[in-house]
Amino acid sequence: MKKTAMRKFAHLIAKCGVNVQKGQEVLIRAELDQPEFVRMVTEECYKLGAKKVIIDWQDQKSVKIHSKYRSLKTMSKMEKWEEERWQHYVDELPCIIYIESEDPDGLKGADQTKLQKARQAQYPTIKKYRDQMENKYQWCIAAAPSEAWAKKLFPNLSKHQAVEKLWQAILATSRADNDPISAWEKHNKDLAKRCEYLNSLKIDELHYQAPNGTDLTVGLMEQSMFEAGEETSLKGIKFNPNIPTEECFTSPKRGRAHGIVYATKPLSYQGQLIDGFWIRFEDGKAVEWNAEKNNDMLTKMLEMDEGAKYLGECALVPTDSPISNSGLLFYSTLFDENAACHLAMGEGFPDCVRGFENMSLEECHKLGVNESMIHVDFMIGCPELNITAKTRDGRQVPIFRNGNWAF
Predict the structure, then answer these.
(1) β-strand 311-316 against 342-346: which pairing, if any?
(2) Contact, 334 vs 174, CB < 8 A?
(3) Which of 289, 324, 319, 328 is nearest to 387 (CA)?
(4) pLDDT band at 173 (very low <50, low <70, confident <90, very high)
């Protein structure tokens, strides 16, 4: 990939993604296979005025080794210096950039039970710091190709050719291959108009139907509102948390989901793929499920905590969108969730509550925003999906017909 194209993408992430402000700290989390691109993002952050950029390197192979040799007690313990680092994040509120490039099967063979129990043990400690940061900082998830990920998508190409092909797909679907900043300004305006219309309907529930068996009704809070694209932190700074994004999303009300839904794409979770699965809900809770591939992993996910069995997000994405039209299955939630309507199990979004800026997290949870240590998106959209909204005044309004917007 040409350095000029990579540099433009790096600038998009720093400027439009997290929108680095002068004097801010920046934390970049990335895999070891992206040193050149991470250096570009780092420099773009400094050019925008960052006072310090910290790079937190990740490595799936090391995680597998740790899961094999560390005891559960050791893996579960939060060291004093780790808590001090979290306290630093609370105090500084750094911009956080995630550069995804993981191998979709990279944690196959890892001790998932041990990893799950360690996460459960650490979560209460981490949560108290994360709650203090909620909606106060800018963050952005973007992607860059690794050889393993690229070969997963293009197995018949050489490693070099596969990486080049994946770079092209990432830039095109991220609206980063021509004039990125201008393209994102236009895209954000379109998404904002769609949210404005959805919010004007005062939707009480969404009814999903598809020939594959999906027949699910999800209820919303009276205060639920749809959001999309550009967000504004409680500090008043605009940023784009996902590059790419095509969704208009909201958080449903905990306890209001009934019926069955079928996934239409594989789910990459904790470095493994879950495929061919369905989930049935009663009174908002997942009560039955099955996956043709990796059902044990799906069960582990849904049993992470009590909130993991409830919905945290309903997202509307047309099949006529750049990622869907690419014809690629990315094996990455960042991309695949933006090719199809999706739901998420687990944590809901307090900022999808009207007036959230004047509420505490506890007040948002009491209104119906789900609380969990996980937030996992899975795709349910297909060309035959229909979604109908029932409004609070009793009207039936078509939202999606045959996989695309009905308005």
Answers:
(1) antiparallel
(2) no
(3) 319
(4) very high
Q: How many residues does the chain have?
A: 407
Sheet of 95-100, strand order = 52-58, 25-31, 95-100, 139-143
* Residue 142: Cβ-neighbour burial (10 angstroms; 0-12, 13-18, 19+): buried
Q: Is the peptide bond before 244 cis (omega within 30 degrees of 0)?
A: yes
What are 235's two structure tokens?
Answer: 């500090």
Q: What is the 3-state secondary structure (H, E, C) of 88-100?
A: HHHHHCCEEEEEE
- The β-bridge relationship of strands 272-282 and 285-293 is antiparallel
Once rounded to an integer, what is the mean pLDDT over residues 307-321?
Answer: 95
**Can you read off the two tokens belonging to residue 309?**
């069995």
Encoded amino acid at 232, one letter: T
Cβ atoms of 146 and 34 closer than 8 Å: yes
Query: Tokens 């780790």 belong to which residue?
Result: 82
Between β-strands 25-31 and 52-58, what pairing exists: parallel, antiparallel or unpaired? parallel
Q: Which residue has the tokens 């994102």?
A: 184
What is the helix (H) or strand (E) element at residue 342, kind and residue range? Answer: strand 342-346
The model's pTM: 0.86
Q: Does the pLDDT at position 134 exceed 90? A: no
Residue pair 377/367 in contact by the 8 Å Cβ criterion: no
Q: What is the pLDDT of residues 338-393, one digit of tens each?
A: 989 999 999 999 999 999 888 888 899 999 999 999 999 999 999 999 999 999 99
What are phi and psi for residue 158, nearest 5 degrees?
-65, 165
End-to-end CA distance of the chain: 38
Instruction: List the one residue out of 175, 176, 160, 179 whose CA is nearest residue 1.
Output: 160
Is residue 44 within 8 Å of residue 17, measured between CB atoms?
no
Measure the CA–CA gap between 223 and 204, rounded to whole angstroms.
Answer: 10
From residue 338, alpha-carbon distances to 79, 280, 316, 335 in Å are 37, 23, 9, 5
Q: Does an H or E element contain 258, and which?
A: strand 252-262
* pLDDT tens string 98-118: 999 988 888 888 888 899 899
pLDDT at 201 over 90: yes
Angstrom distance (rounded) from CA 228 to CA 192: 7
